[in-house]
Design brief:
Layout lengths: L7 E5 L3 H12 L3 E5 L3 H10 L2 E2 L3 H5 L4 E4 L4 H9 L13 E4 L5 H13 L3 E4 L2 E2 L1 H6 L3 E5 L3 H14 E6 L6 H29 L4 H8 L7 H12 L8 H18 L4 H18 L7 H9 L9
Parallel strand pairs: 1-2, 1-4, 2-3, 4-5, 5-6, 8-9
Antiparallel strand pairs: 7-8
C-alpha cells in the first residue's frame, strides 16, 4: 500500500483553487506534479516544492491520485479522455478526484468512462474559496466507493478540513454541490440587492455592513462579498461567469425534475444581466454595480 511519504499526486488545473490544493499537498509531504496552460502557475508550484509537466498526460503518468480542478464537465472530459488525455496514461487502480462543479449526470458519465479504463473515480466538488485552498482547509462533498475513498484519503486529508462521504456512487457529491451553489448564488444576488437598496435609502454603507453582520439578516456571502463593494474592488475572486454557469446547471436540473426554482431563476437572471453589461469576468459582487447602473446610484470606487 502506498504511504503518504511515497504517494505521487498530480494536479490538472493550477488556478486559484488547484494551486492552493497542490501547495497544501506538498506541505504534507506528498510528491506533486502539476499542469496548467499558465506557465506562471507551474512556476509557483515549483517554488513551493512541486514540479511541472509539459502535458496532462505527463502529470498523470506516475500519479497514484490525480486531482482535476478545471472549470466544468466539458474541460474535465477533455483533459481526462480527449486526445492525449490523462486517463489513458494512468496505472490501473489509480484514483481520479474530480473537483469541477458539474451536473450529476455528467459526474456519472465521467465516472463510467474512468471505470471502463480500470480507474477509480471520486466525485468530489469543493467549497471554501482560494484562501481555504491555500491552507488545506476546504470542504469536500464526495461520493465514490469505499476503496476509492481509502486510496484518496492522504490527498483528501491534505486539502480539506472536512470531507463528507455522501454515498458510494458518482453524482451524489455533484448534487450536494449544486444545492450549495443555488444558495451561494441567491445569497450573493440578495446581498447586492440589499446593499444597493441601502444606498438608495441614503444609508452609510460601512455602517450597514457593521449592523447587518451582527444581525439575523447576515449571510456568509454578505459578510464576504460586501467588502468588495465597499472598497470598489471588483478584481475577480469568484467571477460572475461562475454563477451564470452554476445557476444555469441548477435551472436545467429543475426543469428535468419538473421542480420550480423561482428564487434561483431570479438570481440567474441577475447574473446574466451583469454579464451582459460587460462584467462577466469581474467579481461576482459586480451584481451590485449592475443594479447601481440601472438605478442611477453611485457606489464606492477603488482609491488609486
Amino acid at each position: 500500500m502506498t504511504t503518504q511519504n511515497t504517494l505521487a499526486a498530480g494536479v490538472i488545473g493550477l488556478g486559484s483553487m488547484g494551486l492552493g490544493m497542490a501547495q497544501s499537498m506538498v506541505k504534507r509531504g506528498i510528491k506533486v506534479a502539476g499542469f496548467d496552460i499558465n506557465s506562471a502557475a507551474i512556476a509557483k508550484l515549483a517554488e513551493a516544492g512541486g514540479s511541472g509537466a509539459a502535458s496532462v498526460a505527463g502529470v498523470a503518468k506516475n500519479a497514484d491520485v490525480l486531482l482535476v480542478v478545471v472549470v466544468n464537465a466539458a474541460q474535465t472530459d477533455t483533459v481526462l479522455f480527449g486526445e492525449k488525455g490523462a486517463a489513458a496514461t494512468m496505472k490501473k487502480g489509480s484514483v481520479i478526484i474530480s473537483s469541477a462543479t458539474m451536473a450529476p449526470d455528467d459526474a456519472r458519465r465521467l465516472a463510467a468512462k474512468a471505470e471502463a479504463l480500470g480507474l477509480l473515480y471520486l466525485d468530489a466538488p469543493i467549497s471554501g474559496g482560494a484562501a481555504k485552498a491555500a491552507i488545506g482547509q476546504l470542504t469536500v462533498m464526495a461520493s465514490g466507493t469505499q476503496e476509492t475513498f481509502k486510496r484518496a484519503r492522504p490527498v483528501l486529508d491534505a486539502i480539506a478540513a472536512t470531507v463528507y462521504e455522501l454515498g458510494d456512487t458518482a453524482g451524489i457529491g455533484a448534487s450536494f454541490k449544486m444545492v450549495n451553489q443555488l444558495l451561494a448564488g441567491v445569497h450573493i444576488a440578495a446581498a447586492c440587492e440589499a446593499v444597493t437598496f441601502a444606498k438608495k435609502l441614503g444609508l452609510d454603507l460601512p455602517t450597514v455592513y457593521k449592523v447587518i453582520t451582527a444581525s439575523a439578516g447576515n449571510s456568509w456571502m454578505f459578510e464576504n462579498r460586501v467588502p468588495h463593494i465597499l472598497d470598489g474592488d471588483y478584481a475577480p475572486r469568484s467571477a460572475v461567469e461562475i454563477f451564470t454557469k452554476d445557476l444555469g446547471i441548477v435551472s436545467d436540473m429543475g426543469r428535468r425534475e419538473k421542480f420550480p426554482l423561482q428564487i434561483a431563476a431570479t438570481a440567474l437572471q441577475m447574473f446574466l444581466m451583469t454579464a451582459a453589461a460587460g462584467m462577466e469576468r469581474d467579481d461576482d459582487a459586480s451584481v451590485a454595480r449592475m443594479i447601481a447602473e440601472m438605478t442611477g446610484l453611485e457606489l464606492p470606487v477603488a482609491s488609486r
